[in-house]
Amino acid sequence: MKTILVTGGAGYIGSHAVVELLDNDYDVVVIDTLENGFKEFVDKRAKFYQGNVQDVELMSKIFQENKIDAVMHFAGYIRVPESVDDPNKYYFNNTHTTMCLIQSMIKYNVKNIIFSSTAAVYGEIMEDKPIDEKHPTVPINPYGSSKLMSERIILDCAKAYGLNYSIFRYFNVAGAHEKYPIGQKGVGVTSLITLTLQAAKDSNRILEVFGNDFPTKDGTGIRDYIHVVDLVKAHVLSLKLLFKNESNIFNLGNGNGFSVLETVEAARKVTCKKILYKITGRRKGDPACVIASSKKAQNLLGWKAHYTNVEKIIETGWHFVKSL
């Protein structure tokens, strides 16, 4: 039985990866600062360490006490506006943490890493066709840059130290687990579906819609929503390639686009709530349409999105938001 170290395993995506690994008969070790994660999200079957990946002594303790076969690296900050206001915070926490993790992996001869990246590495997408992994990477904010720098560090270290990697660039992750009581919560959530569901739960909240003058069917931006469980299933599948010394970069999305207003309408249908919103100005750099091509993940991993209907994705998120 192989053991996987999950950094940021008490967070939204990390906690879903933990249960997916456990349900596939992996042993799991979690490290999380709990700054943005929640201890109750960590499955009791996993071994938990509270602390920072940059803590050399703690990481040595983890690698000495556990025979780690691979690392899934989710630890990091994700709020784009905050990254613009405080870029050094993002480079220090996202990029430097990746360097520290790799240093610990090299010291203890752990060769396999799965990295949680983002479609933000592509920057301002001007075309309407699905985006594949060959699309130019020109991030327009420090968050995207901090992730792209981490990717480049991993690629260079793979050549120098013989690491194997799977890098996943996420599009819009949404939904919650149907079996376990985990989902997206916390301060500063920017996910449209979660914000919409929070507005459904609290009738005093008004959802902001950023722009209605895009060249789309209803003037609002079109996005690709992937369910968090579908997302982490791809990560677990990629372990098989890593253990065969195969490295890849993958886009992960549904391949379907839904406008903001379509998403709000779907949420109204699922929740039977009014959901108030107001149109505000576009955010700088927001593209009109962003849809992923996940053909590479489908072909190489045998991966397929199970949640292809946006209403079903919203429904799983609504069950979780209602429970809070």
TrEMBL record:
It catalyses: UDP-alpha-D-glucose = UDP-alpha-D-galactose. The keyword Cell inner membrane does not apply. Pathway: Carbohydrate metabolism; galactose metabolism. Gene3D superfamilies: NAD(P)-binding Rossmann-like Domain, UDP-galactose 4-epimerase, domain 1. Residues 4-253 form the NAD-dependent epimerase/dehydratase domain. Its cofactor is NAD(+). Pfam families: Epimerase (PF01370). Keywords: Carbohydrate metabolism, Isomerase, NAD. Its EC number is 5.1.3.2. InterPro entries: Epimerase_deHydtase, NAD(P)-bd_dom_sf, UDP_G4E. Homodimer. NCBIfam families: galE (TIGR01179). Belongs to the NAD(P)-dependent epimerase/dehydratase family. This is UDP-glucose 4-epimerase. It comes from Fusobacterium simiae. The lineage of its organism: Bacteria, Fusobacteriati, Fusobacteriota, Fusobacteriia, Fusobacteriales. The gene is galE.
